[in-house]
Amino acid sequence: MSNYDIKDMSQAEGGRRRIEWAEREMPVLRSIRERFEKERPLAGVRMSACLHVTAETGNLARTLQAGGADLVLVASNPLSTQDDVAASLITHYEIPVYAIKGEDNATYYRHLAAALEHKPQITMDDGADLVSTLHKDHRELLPQILGGTEETTTGVIRLRAMAADKALSFPVVAVNDAMTKHFFDNRYGTGQSTIDGIVRATNVLLAGKVFVVVGYGWCGRGLANRARGMGANVIVTEVDPMKALEAVMDGFRVMPIIEAAKIGDFFCSVTGDINVIDEEHFAVMKDGAIVSNSGHFNVEINIPALEKMSVSKKLVRPFVDQYELKDGRQIHILGEGRLINLASAEGHPASVMDMSFANQALSAEYMVKNHAKLEKRVYSVPEEIDREIARLKLLSMGVTIDTLTDEQVKYLNSWQEGT
Questions:
Q1: Can you name the CATH fold of 187-343?
Q2: 419 is in an annotated binding site
Q3: Which of 35, 197, 209, 233 sits at a 20 to 30 Å CA gap from 170?
C-alpha cells in the first residue's frame, strides 16, 4: 500500500498484538463484525473516519471493513495516535491510515485532506473536524455525502450549532447521545483513563491532594468519583445549577473556580468550552499546581495566557511542561493541554469502547439504509440500537434479566385499573 502516512511500519507486529488484546474485551463489536461479514451492509460505501487511532479503534475499523466499507482512517487528535496500531492496520488489514503521534497542525490538516480526497459517502468523526473542514473547504464533495456519525460531546455541540445555523448539509447520528455510550464511555471510561493519564505523566500521589474537576457532565461525574476513590479531596466547579446541585448531593464540594484555583493541587477540565481555566486562575494557583484537560480540544486551558505570564518554560517529564511565573511560582501543564487520557495514557478501556464503537458500526449501517428519508440535522441513536447493544453486552457478561409477563404488559398499557 502507498496511500498512508504513519511513523514507523516496523512497529506493526506490536500493534497487532495490541489490537488482539483489546478485542478480548470487545465481544459486542466482535459479534457485529461476524454479522457484517455475512451480510455486508456497507458494501461499496466509501467511508472516511477521523477518530483516535488506538487499538480499540483498530477493531472498529476491522468491523467496518468486514461490512464491506472502503475505509480511510485519520487521527482526530495529534497526540492520541498509537503508532504501532497505525502500522498494523496498514500491514495486516490493508486499511489506509494517516496518523502520527505528535504530528503538528499542518500535518494534522493534511491528513484530514487525505480523508476527504477519498470522496467519502459516510463520515465518522470524533470532534467534528472532518465535517467542519468538509463544509468550509471542500463543499464540492457535499452532494455525494449520505450522512455521518459523531463520537463525542464536543463534536455534537459543534454539529448542533451547524444545524441551528442551517449550515449542516447532511444528516448525522450523535453516537455520543446513546445511553450505552455516554453512561459508560464518558463516565467510567473517561473517569478511569483520565486518572491513568495524570498518574502516568506525573507519578504524584493523589491521596490527600485537592483535586478540582471543572465541569460535572458525564465525564466530570466519572472523573470526580475516580479521584475520590484514589483518596483525593474533590472540588467541583460548574455553571449549570442542576449539575452543581447534583455534585453537592453526590458529596462533593462545589464552589466558583476562582476560589478553587487558590487551593487546588490538581485541576482537570472536562467541559467542551474555551478558556475555562484562565489567566485569573493561574494568577492565584499554588506553586506546583498540576493542570490538565480531558475535553476534546486543547482550548479549555488558556495556555497562551499562561505563556505571557511566564518567564520560562521547560519540559520536566514526558508530557509535563513547567511554566515559571514572574513571582517564582511554577505551574505544570500536562499533555500540551490536550486529552491527557490519550496523550500520556491509552484512552478508554476496551470494554467501554466496545459499546461506543458498536454504536458507531450500527449507526453507520442505519445511515446507509435510511439516509434518503432523513433530514439535514443531528439525530440521536435509535432506541432499538441502544437496547440491542445493551442486550449483547449483558449476554457477553453472562447476565440474564427478567421479561414482562403478558399480564404486566397489559397493565402498563392500560389506564382503567387504579388503587
A1: Rossmann fold (3.40.50)
A2: no
A3: 35
How much is the pTM? 0.90
Q: How far is CA 408 from CA 190, 383, 412, in A?
A: 38, 22, 6
Residue 154 labeled ligand binder? yes
Distance CA 71, CA 90 (A): 11
Which amino acid is located at 240 in the chain?
A: D
Q: Which of 98, 99, 100, 94 is nearest to 69 (CA)?
A: 94
23-78, pLDDT tens digit by residue?
999 999 999 999 999 999 999 999 999 999 999 999 999 999 999 999 999 999 99
Is it the case that residue 1 has pLDDT exceeding 60?
no
Please check whether the two domains, 9-181+348-396 and 187-343, share a CATH topology.
Answer: yes
Q: Is residue 81 part of an annotated ligand binding site? A: no
pLDDT tens digits along 89-131: 999 999 999 999 999 999 999 999 999 999 999 999 999 999 9
- Is 165 a known ligand-binding residue? no
Residue spans of the domains in the chain: they are 9-181+348-396, 187-343
For residue 85, the model assigns a pLDDT of 98
Per DSSP, 25 falls in state T
What's the CA gap between 350 and 374, in Å, rounded? 32
| Inter-CA distances, 345 with 29, 201, 223, 284, Å | 23, 8, 15, 29
What's the CA dihedral at 197, 201, 205, 208 to 10 degrees?
A: -60
Position 419 scores a pLDDT of: 65
148 has binding-site annotation: no
197 carries a ligand binding annotation: no
